[in-house]
Amino acid sequence: LVIFSSDNGGEIQMECCAGNNYPLRGGKGSVFEGGIRAAAFITGGYLPDNRIGKIETGMMHIADWYTTFCEMIGVDPFDDNADYHGLPPVDGVNLWPLISGENSTSPRIILPIDNTTLIQGNYKLIVGDAINMATWQGPRWPNASSPTSNVFKEMDCSRGCLFDLEQDMTEHFNIARDNYQLVRRMNATLVNYSKYFYANDDVLTESCPDDIDMECVCWMAVNRYDGYLGPYCNL
What we know:
By secondary structure, this protein is of the alpha+beta class. The chain is built from six helices and eight strands; from the N terminus they run βαβαααββββαβαβ. β3 and β4 form a beta hairpin.
């Protein structure tokens, strides 16, 4: 079984990357679909013949791959060592029944993105007064008329922005005003999930000398990795 999966959308900042997520809104580092909706493909003899060439749009998080692999080979995804050190349980669900075609719907029905954004079923709620990269790219982008500052356009979602991703995956239509009760329920769910978000307190130490005149990641690429990006922090 061969799986190739992206981890996020393309970086649209003009100074470094100028990726294109058309027709989706936003890019890497944003909570819009251009930043978080990723593509993947699966191939190989383990994949059932009736699934070859099929398109699957069921909800999935990249964290689900680990749990899915464990379930496929009969391994408990629970990590005793991580539990001993106080880490939370693996937050993934088994997607193989969906991928293999045994089920037609995804077992994942809710997806908290961060403390501003929740996807539940077909709906996506964003809450915040300055949501970054609220912009779209065109079929041919960037081009001569693409301003650098445009990618940093912000959207005011202080009262909640609601999108129906099934009908409007490009997030053009904020339907929050017509779905007030749904916004309230989803916001309450998001607040509850946010209480349990995990963040470690590790502090990384860069491996570079103190007197360099560029970012450490660049210095390491030039001086250690023959121009390629690589690790630049001590373990």
